[in-house]
Each structure stands twice: as C-alpha cells, then as structure tokens.
Amino acid sequence: xxxxxxxxxxxxxxxxxxxxxxxxxxxxxxxxxxxxxxxxxxxxxxxxxxxxxxxxxxxxxxxxxxxxxxxxxxxxxxxxxxxxxxxxxxxxxxxxxxxxxxxxxxxxxxxxxxxxxxxxxxxxxxxxxxxxxxxxxxxxxxxxxxxxxxxxxxxxxxxxxxxxxxxxxxxxxxxxxxxxxxxxxxxxxxxxxxxxxxxxxxxxxxxxxxxxxxxxxxxxxxxxxxxxxxxxxxxxxxxxxxxxxxxxxxxxxxxxxxxxxxxxxxxxxxxxxxxxxxxxxxxxxxxxxxxxxxxxxxxxxxxxxxxxxxxxxxxxxxxxxxxxxxxxxxxxxxxxxxxxxxxxxxxxxxxxxxxxxxxxxxxxxxxxxxxxxxxxxxxxxxxxxxxxx
Amino acid sequence: xxxxxxxxxxxxxxxxxxxxxxxxxxxxxxxxxxxxxxxxxxxxxxxxxxxxxxxxxxxxxxxxxxxxxxxxxxxxxxxxxxxxxxxxxxxx
Lengths: 389, 92
Hints:
- The structure holds two protein chains of two kinds.
- By secondary structure, chain A is α/β, with parallel strands linked by helices.
- In chain A, 33% of the residues lie in helices and 23% in strands.
- In chain A, α2 (66-76) runs parallel beside α4 and α7 crosses α9.
- By secondary structure, chain B is an all-alpha fold.
- In chain B, 55% of the residues lie in helices and 0% in strands.
- Chain A binds chain B through residues 304, 306-307, 310-311, 313-314, 318, 374-376, 379-381, 383-384, 387, and chain B through 36, 41-44, 46-48, 50-51, 63-64, 66-68.
C-alpha cells in the first residue's frame, strides 16, 4: 500500500486560540490532507458540526472553540459561501436552549464576525428513522433528515475524556446529531459501553463526515466531558478524512491503548486496520501526554453495568397524559416526530418509542401532557444530593 | 410461592452482604434498622439493592410504582416482594 492510499491523520501545533494561529494551523492541516480530500464542488452546501454540548464559555474547553469554527470557515470560503452550522445539545433541544448555547459558546460572535456567512440550522424539523442490530437487539434511532442535503459535513470535535467512553473525539461527536433526550434513551437501551460504542460507529458510518478537525489546543481530562472534568493544555489541532483514524491517533496522545477506548476497541474488532493510518505533519511524540488524567468512572462502570442500566431506565422521563383534561384534538399525535403517540379512544404513549423531545407537551392547547421522572428517581436524586452536602 | 418466612430469610441473607460492605462497627439488627439512616445507604446503593432483589426473587418492579418509602426497612421490602409475587401468581 503506498502512502497516497493510507488514511492520513495530520497534526500541527497550535499554541493558542489567537486568530492567526488557528487559521494557519487549519490551512496547514488541509494542505497535509490533500491526498485524501475529495474535491469540494463550487458553492456546495457545507455543514459544520462542532461540539456544542452545553451552554458553557469557550474558556471552559468543553465545547469546540469558536475560533476553530471561524478558521474552518475561512478555509471553506475558497470553495463555497454556503456554510451552515448546527449541533444538538445534551438535554432539552428547545429553540431557547439552542440559542442560549450558541450565545454562551461564542458561536453567535463568530457568526457575526463572519458577516453572517455561517447560517445556523435547526436539525429537528424532520427526522429519519435508522436501525441497527446490536447484541441481538434491534435499536431504532433518529437522525435529522436535513443532513442528507449537505455535500460535505465537516466534523469539529473537541478533545475530551468521557466518564463512560474513556474518550470523546471525532466518532462520538456525531452522536450530538441525535435529537434532545433521545441521547439519554440510547444510553438506557445500550448500557454496556461496548454496545454503545457500536451505536456510535453506526451513526458515524451513516453520517459519513468528509473532514474531521479536532480542537485539541485545550481539552478536558479527568471526569469529562462536562464541568466535572479539568481543562488541559494540549497545544495542537488534528485532522483526518477518517474519524476512526483520528480517534486512534488521539489514543496515542493520551498514552493509552486503543482497547482502552470502547469505540476504538470495537472498530478494531470489526476489522479496522491500524497499519492503514499514516500520521503526517508534526512529530506525534511531541504531543504525547504521559500525565493525562483518565476518568475514575471508567473502572466503576465496568463493575456495575447492570446497576447503571437500571439507573438509566429510571432516569428516563416519561410522557403522561391527563385523560380528564385531554380534549382528544390529536394535535400531539400530528406533531410527534417519531410516531410514539397513537389514538384508541384516548391518546396512548409508547414509552419505548418516545424520545422525550417534549414537542407534544409544547403543542397541547389544554396543558394535558406532562413529562416527568419516576418518583423513585426523583427521590434518589435527593438522597444523592444530601449525601454530597 | 414461598412462605413469608422463606422470603424473610432470603432477603436477610441478601442484606447481610450490604452490611458486610458497611463500615460501621455497631451491632445491626437487619430486621429493625433503617437502610438510609442506620446503614448509610446512598442513592446508588438503593438502586443496587432493588436490582439485587429483582435478581434474587425473579421479577422486575414496575418503575412507576417504585418509591423510597417502600425500600427503607426490612418489613417494607418484604411487603413489596410479597405483593409482586402475588401479582405474578395471579398473572400466570
């Protein structure tokens, strides 16, 4: 196999989020990947998929830094000005929360600075059902239909540890495309992290991003991927046309084996060939971190899989219809994106299909629909909170 | 269906494993103690106990019927187990 056929992963230093540094690094990365890049058609519709999981400041290093988004926009503008951006946050995917995230993560500032070249999109107007068999279970999940309309998806993950999955990188970032609460439901359906890794790889395969650019100037170590983790300086950007190759190179930076990262371990089990990966650009040895702190829970989950599964079951919010208030207008049925509601003399909810998106709650003119946790889950959260005091 | 006494022995043996993990040196009467205040059960231990009971007795509690009040003492748990067994029996 010659080097042109290999899956390149480019790595370049990027000392800070200063605009000129990041733009230079992104151009260097794309230059290094030339051999692997498919040509981007003039004015093709391009989707940027950063990690905007939580409404946090870019300084927290939990989300993709806005300057990385800006630099990628600068590079794309050589080919196209049809640039869109979107992500699905953790938790509620309401328009208000989405807007709060764009504001807090600095995305709105970048959009303004780009002269509104980047347009925000709402993923969840229409969803398309996907199916995959994992450990003999038929798993159904939904992806936004709109992603099919893009000629090129550019995945912009953040380098972070993950309490369940050890590491969240290019493959895991695409999980953000699943709508709202359905992310949590998938955890409950697939509590075993290796099964969950299979789902991640299936999503990645179906979304098939053209380019993956990892923000690793600052990342998260310890109990990531959210606020419980700690900000960590890494000082580089990485890119590849292959998200799995990119994540495998990240395991080298973390100084751990691919088998320690469930997504990488499952990819290897499915026949992914590590020797097809070629690292180009800077010397990877310069970025290996021997002191990178991994999540403690990585071990805890292994020992307690069945209990964690039950917690996920309990933690699922369930839709409740107040039949005495319901006027049977069936508006809720008409707006449900996943057909979890049906009518048989009264509105019926199928808990196993419901993705807790709350569209029905919002549309009901009678306020007859509510969504709530089970009583025990609410109570044990209180016990947990007290014991942490 | 087992006799109430057999349920009690089975549950007692199960709870003893939790006491073995408990750091307290006091003499504990499993049948009279409060799991949260006397045994310092936390939210995770409670879920563990529920799952272990389900495995030991071969049924699954309905999530919507679960509440903390039903799992804080030996007698309350026994009542839950007998109720579940009765229900399963009548569904057969």
